[in-house]
Design goal:
By secondary structure, this protein is mainly beta. It has one domain (5-117). The chain has helices at 19-26, 66-73; strands at residues 5-18, 34-35, 49-51, 57-58, 77-87, 93-99, 102-106. The strands form two sheets. It has a five-stranded antiparallel β-sheet. The longest helix is centred in the N-terminal third of the chain and has 8 residues, at 19-26. The mean pLDDT is 92.
């Protein structure tokens, strides 16, 4: 996709990443303006699991680095992530589910339920 992600709506986030992978992935200069890797603290111990604080991936370079997110970054996680990416201009939506590093791109469906039917 040639444009950027405006924001990410996280539906499920119960995932972590090894500090070794975090340090390796943060060395990539192609990260987007808003990137959850920048919010994570690898600490001073190697090979420790660190919880993901969010799944930010938006702003400048988020469109051109989307494949990297799907093919390199998310496969380095363990646990469960479900998120919806809203692309610039509101004309695109992508869904992603990641379970123990296995990424599945998903179609996104909206459902309206009348307020009184809760």
């Amino acid at each position: 996709m040639s444009y950027n992600i405006d924001h990410v709506e996280v539906l499920v986030l119960d995932a972590s990443m090894r500090t070794d992978d975090l340090v390796r992935l943060r060395d990539d200069d192609n990260r987007p303006e808003g990137c959850f890797l920048d919010e994570m603290d690898p600490g001073d111990r190697a090979d420790v699991m660190v919880a993901l604080p969010n799944l930010w991936w938006y702003g400048e370079r988020s469109g051109t680095s989307y494949d990297e997110l799907i093919k390199i970054v998310l496969p380095a996680t363990r646990g469960t992530i479900e998120a919806v990416m809203f692309w610039e201009g509101g004309d695109g939506v992508s869904g992603v589910r990641c379970v123990d590093g296995v990424v599945t791109e998903c179609d996104v469906s909206y459902v309206l339920t009348p307020v009184g039917d809760k």
